[in-house]
Design goal:
heterodimer, A: 151 residues, alpha+beta, Pnp Oxidase, Chain A, elongated, B: 170 residues, 6 helices, globular
Chain lengths: 151, 170
Amino acid sequence: MPLPKLEETLRSFQSAVLTGVDEQGYPISVRCQPQVDEAGSILRVHLPTNIHMMPGPAGLLCHSHDEKLWKLKSFALQGTLEHQEEWSLFHVQRFVPGMNVAGAPGPLTTLIRARRTMKQILRKRGLSHPPIPWNQMKQLADPSTLERERS
Amino acid sequence: MLDLSLPSEVTSVFETFRCCEFTTLTKQGVPITWPVSAVYFPERGQFLITTSISFPQKVWNIRRNPKVALLFSDPTGSGMTNPPIVLVQGNAAVSDEIVVLNEDMERFWKELYRRQPFSRNYSSNALSRKLMSWYFMRWCIFITPQTIRWYPQGDMQQASQSIEVTNAAS
């Protein structure tokens, strides 16, 4: 993805989540505000002093939603992390569109792919389409049920 | 069963945040992060995440490498003011069975419908039920924390507080 587009896409989110790997091999994430370097597809991040990410594979996620977890929007970057004296540098290798950003699959494509994968998984396991208890699901989704349980 | 003995401001984050950032590691060790809705089971000291069988990448990754992380850093819709950012690192286990509804899933669906009311449209009529049946077939991913670290006021540049869960096991 060309840099101007990346910068524009990043700017449409308030902040990002950078994830690397710690000394024990666990993923470790920080909320940050990366700056796009003028030289190319490199993001500069100021990591908290008590977060120790190993140099190497890393990822960056930007996502947003409204107050009711709707109007979802997201994209991810894959790349590598390098530490310098004051900053850490995230070298972008791949742009992965998520939802409702340029390059993201539309709802119809998502639906077709989801149904195809479902059929493949079930076929591979020799399973038929499991019954969905729609009446129970409807009851669980009923706002009055949810409200009654909360009060 | 784990007694995590966490301060209420941390458990409130688990209960009120509408989503968190969940990371698994690929075969090549590349961290991949998704926004997900995690349900906290305080009586077990565990988190439950589910994924439709149509989006199996998280499951493949966990079966190769159970090390995962959850970051609770987006308070939108939580109703909390200046909540802490919470980082949970731990080990995940995936159910082998494809599940639509059981006791744990009942809790999950209720929580999801509360956090994301529009998702009830996926089962609202015959057409959406036919087209969206994949959405309801799920794998359960249980996460047992190893370390929980939180940053008061959501400021990750300030000192964090943390617990090592192995020391907190009852």
